[in-house]
Amino acid sequence: MARPEADPVPPVRAGLLDAVYDDLGVRQGPEGGTLRVWSGHADTVELVVFDDVDLDWAIATLPLAPVGGGVWAVTTELLRPGARYALRADGPAAPGNTFNRETLLLDPYARGIVTGGFGDHRAVVVDGGFDWGGVPKPAVPLDRTVIYEAHVKGLTKRHPGVPPALHGTYAGLAHPAMIEHLVALGVTSVELLPVHASATEPRLLNLGLTNYWGYNSVNFFTPHARYATAENRRSGPEAVLREFKGMVRLLHEAGLEVILDVVYNHTAEEGLGGPRSSLRGLDNRSYYRQHDDGTYIDVTGCGNSVDTATDAAARLVLDSLRYWADDVQVDGFRLDLAVTLGRDGAHTFTPDHPLLRAIVDDPALAGVKTIAEPWDVGMGGWQTGNFGTGWHEWNDRYRDRVRNFWLSDVDYARRADTSPTGIGGFATRLAGSSNTFSAERGPLASVNFVTSHDGFTLHDLVSYDVKHNLANGEHGRDGADTNRSFNHGIEGPTDDERILSVRRKAMRNLLGTLLLSAGIPMIAAGDEFGRTQRGNNNAYCHDSALTWLSWEHADWQEDLAAHVRRLLQLRRENPALRPSRFARPGARTPSASVMQWYDEHGETMSIQRWTSATHRTLQYVAASTPEHEEPNRILLVVHGNETPIEVTLPPLDGADRFISLWTSITERPTEESRELQPGEVVVMPDTSMHLFRVV
């Protein structure tokens, strides 16, 4: 019925791309399924096959044979599609090892999972066949990419146009009503919070809460079943996978990319004493970062850190990315706490880490967008700007500077009657963060954001001075204390129309900055409507109306969404707003934007005014360097304090007039195209922006 694999492979090591790591997991062949598992320290590895219905009824136990390089293998006709199975591993008792021959373990390469209870999983063999119908990946150019970060359930749970049976599901995300919103908004790429199979920590379960965000992976190859429809969950992992692939196909048909937020830096096995459900039981010493005595080196804050200095662990990550990019056809990845993945054997980050280079150099991942969250909580964990060519990074420096300029600086000025900083740093971020990213990487290395899933929503950023997280069960200790937010005079909800009006304009300024900046913009789902989480800046544990998007909107919310649509339209139409490269003085750089800076008098900005804390008004001119599109030039006027000012439009070579395109001043985007001449005066009210096309 079964035979161990023979003819051992010589234990030659050539890094994570060594052929010894090929074809791990289950592969179908003429003699049945072949299972290959890696464990460098085990003495024995067994396959346990279970009944199709009763997950506790083991129908066969088969030994795996060592075939070299730490790989164990067996071939059996029992490993057919639909089969439920688990592993057992035994090995020596030594510091760092946690073998237990009685523990049932999940195959790290399992394509399907069924769960009997907390930490009690069975792998499922899936066929994975799917008709893609010839639908290609959209391959959105980087300069045109606009990311929309969303939670599968939160985005669709309450959408009135999505049938109730599809609420909170992959199929719901692919419903025409949902696609219509995304396309009409003007985003190009949907970045989904983790969809790998995940688990909720016992601490949260005891509090009656859940790990809603999903940053607690059980397995790196299986879609989270709870986001599938009830019918497909009942049908099993094969149907869940088909639903996920169907979502990807329908989004691709609409021209929308799918980017996955992936968590490879740690797993749901938590710290020592946590569940021994997979990697810990197979080879704890090799898969997790440890001191010599076996205690964990936790640079993630989640109990454990996957040790990608081990070739097998690094290859596990790479193979997972390949699977999702090829078999499931996703378009990109945002790697959570990516610094952890780039730590070497001494636990030090290096941008040339073999895994980080393999991810961007692997032909199997060609054209895939790779985005790093460029920090973790370990020593030397903040690495914004330090990833290599081919990587894009969440730019927290951009986030902080933009929040400061429009919010905390204004708050400070009200209290101290002067501003703490001027406009120079803000302008650098607006122009692509050249002080953070090298000329070789260019402005598109920066993923610009003002808000994300983690922290205040856009509405709450302008409505709360402090976090309100008591519902999280941690006595308000969790979540960031420094938010650079500003409530504009009253904490939280208010009926004061004066304050509400200023808050709405602050949201327009933040969105205008984000969507008119050089770099790749990312919008957090619901911010286009000004959604609130009632001041909770760490709502990871709430699967409720607090985190589900509401689709019943007041007039001001529809007005805000209209601003987002208009700004994204202007971004598409004006290549000067989305350069691919930094311009170089005295040289013509294709697909760069040549920038000029003027003060409110229409005069070239002096160094003194650039650096002065009291000077917060700027005229920013960007002229595209044509490569694929027609020449284009824009003027953006930014005024960053609460005293109105008259701005004289600058005299520009070859400029006859300025056509008004957008302003943050009005509650709703205006349709009129006002034209002004160089030298004319524009009145900028308190804290506002105005965009013109130069012709």
Automatic annotation (TrEMBL):
Family, per entry: Belongs to the glycosyl hydrolase 13 family.
Stretches assigned to the Glycosyl hydrolase family 13 catalytic domain: 145-571
Stated name of the protein: Glycogen debranching protein GlgX
PANTHER family in UniProt: GLYCOGEN DEBRANCHING ENZYME
Keywords: Glycosidase, Hydrolase
Species per Swiss-Prot/TrEMBL record: Microbacterium lushaniae
InterPro entries in the record: GH, GH13_cat_dom, GlgX_Isoamylase_N_E_set, Glyco_hydro_13_N, Glyco_hydro_b, Glycogen_debranch_GlgX, Ig-like_fold, Ig_E-set
GO molecular function, a single term: amylo-alpha-1,6-glucosidase activity
